[in-house]
Design a protein that fits this description.
Helices cover 16% and strands 25% of the residues. The chain is of the alpha+beta class and 210 residues long. It has two domains: 32-98 and 179-210, 2-Layer Sandwich (Alpha-Beta Plaits), CATH 3.30.70; 101-176, Alpha-L RNA-binding motif (Alpha-Beta Plaits). The strands form three sheets. Strands 3, 4, 5, 6, 9, 10, 11 and 12 form an eight-stranded mixed β-sheet that branches. Strands 1-2 form a two-stranded antiparallel sheet. Strand 7 and strand 8 form a beta hairpin.
Length: 210
């Protein structure tokens, strides 16, 4: 340790300051997995940093270990965002083959027509291919729509409605993989509970539950 030979196994080390080697190989501590649930506000980037100095989701949380957003929400979109340093889980939550459900509340510039609702449910053609079937529900006010999808293409929800000549005025992700931020105000965050993490791992087929 730091050019000293350690004979006492009870010696304490500081991973941030001390370099530990065994047989000339560096020994690194096992990183603790961290899972953060954030209510992302509008006007915030789903990124670790920004070269233009804009606020990112990392600026909103105060934790000692680095985490990254799982997927992304657009700058002007709010709602559920998970951040973690668990790359294995993040991969499964974002890969299309795991069919992770995402639910959005959408405010449109005009009422959604029934024919267009059916088109959305069956899949619409975008520049990167046809979207998968989804669930579309309308509320009392027909320009307020609930959309449930299993894909995660860039700006997908907005592009789906734009393909049918609608403009999205407000977009909120209200649910991601069963997670909600109903108890959090925009900008607030909390750690996932053990029950929530267990449910995510079961949902993505991770059997070695830690």
């Amino acid at each position: 340790m730091n050019q000293q030979t350690i004979q006492n196994l009870a010696t304490f080390v500081d991973p941030a300051l001390d370099l530990v080697m065994v047989d000339e190989k560096i020994i690194r501590p096992i990183e603790q997995s961290i899972y953060v649930l954030l209510h992302k506000p509008e006007g915030c980037l789903s990124a670790v940093s920004d070269d233009r100095g804009r606020e990112t989701v990392i600026d909103l949380i105060d934790i000692p270990s680095p985490v990254r957003p799982v997927g992304r929400l657009d700058y002007d979109t709010s709602g559920v965002l998970l951040l973690t340093n668990d790359g294995h889980l993040a991969y499964r939550l974002t890969h299309p083959r795991f069919n992770i459900e995402k639910e959005y509340k959408v405010l449109l510039n005009r009422p959604l027509e029934k024919d267009d609702q059916r088109k959305l449910e069956q899949g619409v053609y975008l520049e990167d291919g046809k979207t998968a079937p989804c669930v579309v529900k309308t509320g009392k006010d027909w320009n307020q729509v609930s959309l449930i999808i299993h894909e995660g293409r860039k700006r997908q929800v907005k592009r789906m409605f734009q393909s049918l000549n609608y403009r999205v005025k407000e977009l909120i992700r209200v649910k991601f993989a069963g997670l909600t931020v109903s108890t959090l105000k925009p900008g607030e965050w909390r750690y996932l509970s053990a029950e929530e993490l267990l449910r995510l791992k079961k949902l993505t087929g991770i059997t070695h539950i830690k």
